[in-house]
Amino acid sequence: MAPSDAGDCRLADLPARRPGRVVGLEAGSGADADELVLRLSELGFLAGEAVEVVARAAFGGPLAVRIGSATFALRRSEAAAIRVRHGR
Q: Is there a domain that residue 64 lies in?
């Protein structure tokens, strides 16, 4: 994805311990993409929410991601569907 401005990226690319805010969800097209967007929304990945990558597993493994007071493990492919803006 080409960022819409210099501060936007995918959550999968956000450096660990760098705060960000959810800008939106983009998972492509199809039923699986719709299900992923719904699941992420239900977990609280909504526009405006503060988010942070807490830890990254080695070799392309999952990310530990904090949103609000909850921490989730997300596959990198799931985290790539979440657009974020750097900063609080």
A: yes
Give the global pTM: 0.86
Helix (H) / strand (E) element for 22: namely strand 20-25
> How many distinct structural domains can be found in the chain?
1
- The candidate with the shortest Cα–Cα distance to 20, out of 61, 69, 65, is 65
- Amino acid at site 10: R
Residues facing 86 on adjacent strands? 20
Contact 83, 8 (CB under 8 A): yes
Closest CA to 81 of 43, 5, 18: 43
CB atoms under 10 Å from CB of 70, counted, come to 9
Over residues 50-78, the pLDDT tens digits come to: 999 999 999 989 999 999 899 999 999 99
Domain at 79, CATH number: 2.30.30.90
Judge whether 10 and 74 are in contact, CB under 8 Å: no
